[in-house]
Amino acid sequence: MNANQKIQETEEEIRKTIEKFKEEIRKIHTGRANPSLVEDILVDYYGGKSPLKQVASINIPEPRVITISPWNKDDLV
């Protein structure tokens, strides 16, 4: 591997890291609840892990309150 290839790989890794950081920083909103704070939390569902947004509805009834309502309450352990 030559120096140019290493530089290109490093630049690509930096770009990916910056994009991931931007995604994470969008989730932070001080003083206001946001569904993105919890939607990607992995939960046990039928013996596997699934993001919370795939097994429940997430609502913001008030600025500082998040409600999570599972679609099938029988699946809760």
Write up what this structure looks like:
- The protein is an alpha+beta fold.
- Helix content is 31%, strand content 27%.
- The chain has one helix at residues 3-26; strands at residues 42-45, 48-51, 56-62, 65-70.
- The protein has a two-stranded antiparallel ribbon with strand order 1-2.
- Strand 3 (56-62) and strand 4 form a beta hairpin.
- The longest helix is centred in the first third of the chain and has 24 residues, at 3-26.
Quick tags:
4 strands; two-stranded antiparallel sheet; alpha+beta; 77 residues; 1 helix; 31% helix
Secondary structure blueprint with pairings:
Elements: H1 3-26, E1 42-45, E2 48-51, E3 56-62, E4 65-70
Antiparallel strand pairs: 1-2, 3-4
Entry summary:
The chain contains one helix and four strands, in the order H-E-E-E-E. It has 77 residues and is of the alpha+beta class.
Query: How confident is the prediction overall: mean pLDDT?
Result: 85
Instruction: Name the overall outline.
Output: elongated
- Number of distinct beta strands: 4
Q: How many strands, which pairing sense, and closed or not: the largest β-sheet?
A: 2 strands, antiparallel
Report the total helices: 1
Terminus-to-terminus distance: 51 Å
Q: Report strand order across the widest sheet.
A: 1-2
Pattern of helices and strands: HEEEE
Stretches with pLDDT under 50, minimum 5 residues: none
Beta-strand content: 25-35%
Radius of gyration, in Å, reads 19 Å
| Content-based structural category | alpha+beta
Helix content: 25-40%
